[in-house]
Amino acid sequence: MGLRDDFPDLPPVWAAGVFVAQLAAAALPFGGLDPGWARPAGLVLLVAGIGLAGWAARWFARRRTPIEPGETPRVLIVEGPFRLNRNPIYTGMTVALAGAGLMLLSWPAAVLSLALPWILGRRFVAAEERRLREAFGAEAEAWLARSRRW
């Protein structure tokens, strides 16, 4: 099933959708988390996730290559957070959503954060990796082999 032509098919839009689902899940009567540890831990994850995503996004600007999925990359970024993780922005968004779920004191909301890497992996990651291989050949293959997807 395809998306409407006017749907902004971008990772942050999908992350916002997962967050709305988390809010709905938090309202369900599944029993809550211990607020003594969940909110502080959630805050740490939320801040760490936003920080990781922001740090990675700055590398796109620094290297002057498009950040938008679907654009042809001009530079293969292998520095900073990309040394170990191919998708630090997506990982950061997922960590931030896990933190939001904990801050909502809801196990279902926290678990829903795992929907984001599933969605992004199917909507964006394979195509992004293909574009990297096409643009950078053996250099991309070597980086893809030594870095983790998530």
Q: Which helices and strands appear, and what pairs or packs with what?
A:
Elements: H1 11-26, H2 35-63, H3 88-103, H4 107-112, H5 115-146
Helix pairs in contact: 1-3, 1-5, 2-3
What distinguishing features does this structure have?
66% helix, 150 residues, mainly alpha
Structure description:
With 150 residues, the chain is mostly helical. It has one domain (33-146). The protein is 66% helix and 0% strand. The chain is built from five helices and no strands. Helix 1 (11-26) crosses helix 5 and helix 2 (35-63) packs antiparallel against helix 3. The model has no long low-confidence stretch (mean pLDDT 92).
- How far is it from the N-terminal to the C-terminal residue, by CA? 26 Å
Mean pLDDT: 92
The helical percent reads 55-70%
Give the helix tally.
Answer: 5
Radius of gyration: 17 Å
Number of domains: 1
Main pleated sheet: none
Number of strands: 0
Oligomer: single chain
| Estimated share of beta-strand residues | under 5%
Return residue spans where pLDDT drops below 50 for at least 5 consecutive residues. none
Category from helices, strands and their pairing: mainly alpha
Shape: globular
